[in-house]
Amino acid sequence: MPTIESCVIQNNTTGLYVQNVTAAALCTANTIQDNGTGVHFASCTACTVDNQTLEGSNGIYGAIYMQNSGEFTIASGNTIGGVGQENSWPVTIDIGSYPSLASSGHIPTSGNTHNGIQVRGGATAASITWPDVAVDYIITSPPTISAGGILDIDDGVIVKLDHGQYLSVYGTLNAPGSAGILFTRYEAGDEWRGLHFYSGSSGTLQHSTIEYAQYYAGGYGIHGEEATLAIEP
Question: What are the CA-CA distances from residue 145 to residues 6, 46, 128, 168, 169 (Å)?
Answer without folding.
Answer: 39, 21, 10, 6, 5
